[in-house]
Amino acid sequence: MSRFLSSRRVQIESASYDDDNGRAPETLDNDGSDGSGSMKLWPSDSNVTEDQEPFMGVKVRRKASRLRDYLGDYIDVPSRPYLMRILEKQGDKKVLFADKVLKFTSSGKMKRRILLITDFAIYIVDPDTDALKRRIALAAVEKLCLSELSDNFFSIIIPTEYDLLMASTRKTEIVTVLVDATKSASDYELEVSLSNRFEYHAGADIVKEIQFEEVEGGVKTRIIRK
Fold this sequence. Notes:
This protein has 226 residues and is mainly β.
């Protein structure tokens, strides 16, 4: 476990231009704890130099090398009847990726969710109630937004609906799977936008900007309502 015990931290601040009171920033330490018993976020263990991860502000590895490290299903979907029922109801069978993630709500709260990616759609499932919260067809995804730094955040942009902002230590794999699945299904090259500042629609009438700043020992992330 020593590979997880670095001094890096990810600091998340939520703010609004029209909020005079502000809110205290929430900090996720590298032991994976935020003090509230929420899901652990450890740094990726994909190592250094030539083998550092793409989409994490560092060198991109060859695809063949990356795929050897990817397991796809990290929660054993076939052993979870409620997930199988959700997929069967939608006619989906091939799971490309499955894992627990953090999803940010329109109000800025973090919720534990299960992210499923099939060759046709993205599923967001509540692990506490076993309920399907959202299904997004891959064809509806316009692009993926993420920073140029080594953080865990990514946003899925869906023009016909509201967007998704999530955090996962397997961000690289998620982005790679989405790009490859979209190309396989439609021969469309999904855009991956790298910027340390980007906007996303957290709700029908809620636009937020997420800002990333490299600080000593980690990355500071600030979410602002526009």
